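Suppose a colleague, Dr. K., hands you the sequence of a protein chain of 128 amino acids and asks what its three-dimensional shape might be. Before reaching for any lab equipment, you can write down a predicted structure in token form. Begin with the sequence itself:
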Amino acid sequence: MSCTIEKALADAKALVERLRDHDDAAESLIEQTTALNKRVEAMKQELQAHVDQITEMAAVMRKAIEIDEQQGCKEQERIFQLEQENKGLREILQITRESFLNLRKEDVSESTSLSALVTSSDLSLRKS
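The predicted structure, expressed as tokens, is then:
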């Protein structure tokens, strides 16, 4: 094998050229990686913004459910109170009806006995 300076220089130039090509390829890869990292970071921020919105919406929905449940309990309590009041009013109405019917019966029987008295006294007056 003969090793000459010209051959060594030619090999060195070829190696330098290959190193430049590799250096350019590495630089291109670094640029692509940097751009890709920027895109990934932007996507992370966008995703975090969506997560924050969803978290906020979930908190609002939890609060709405809590308020709705409280309102439902208040409505149930009010319905129970109204049912109890209605029951009491019905009982009072029933007592009033019964009392009224009893009074009417007493009035009718008094009226009947009074009319019998009037009729008998009317007859005795006529006889005289």
